[in-house]
Amino acid sequence: MPAIMPVTDLRNYGAVLREVAPGSPVFLTRNGRGRYAVVDIADWEAIESARALVAELDRGRASAAEGVHSLSDARAHLADRLSHEQA
């Protein structure tokens, strides 16, 4: 069961932080509506890693949508990029 607390409970932030654990965020409400989440740092790192993975997968899908290129085209493209980076 998720921990849901009003943001005013942050006056006693130690009690709120004691409720936070890996896999168990605390959701804070303002005016009865969800507004904030306090998460364990390990959970935050997992979220960021997942976000980075999804971004890379999206880049891969976009690249695949451009079509298939021959190995010689890929080598020429890579050589061109490397020469521009070294210049």
Write a structural description.
It is a single chain. The protein has two domains: 3-39; 42-86. 55% of the residues lie in helices and 17% in strands. It is of the alpha+beta class and 87 residues long. The protein is built from three helices and three strands, in the order E-H-E-E-H-H. The chain is elongated. Strand 2 (26-30) and strand 3 form a beta hairpin. Strands 1-2-3 form a three-stranded mixed beta sheet, covered by helices on one side.
Key features of this structure:
alpha+beta, elongated, 2 domains, 87 residues, 3 helices
* Mean pLDDT across every amino acid position: 92
- Give unreliable regions as ranges: none
Estimate the helix proportion, in percent.
Answer: 55-70%
Strand content: 15-25%
Q: Number of domains in the coordinates?
A: 2
Shape, per Cα inertia axes: elongated
Strand tally is 3
- The topology string of helices and strands comes to EHEEHH
Q: How many whole angstroms does the radius of gyration measure?
A: 23 Å
Distance N to C terminus: 57 Å
Class per helix and strand makeup? alpha+beta
Strand arrangement across the biggest beta sheet: 1-2-3
Total helices: the number is 3
Q: What's the main sheet like?
A: 3 strands, mixed
Question: What would you say about this model in short?
Answer:
By secondary structure, the chain is α+β, with helices and mostly antiparallel strands. The protein contains three helices and three strands; from the N terminus they run βαββαα.
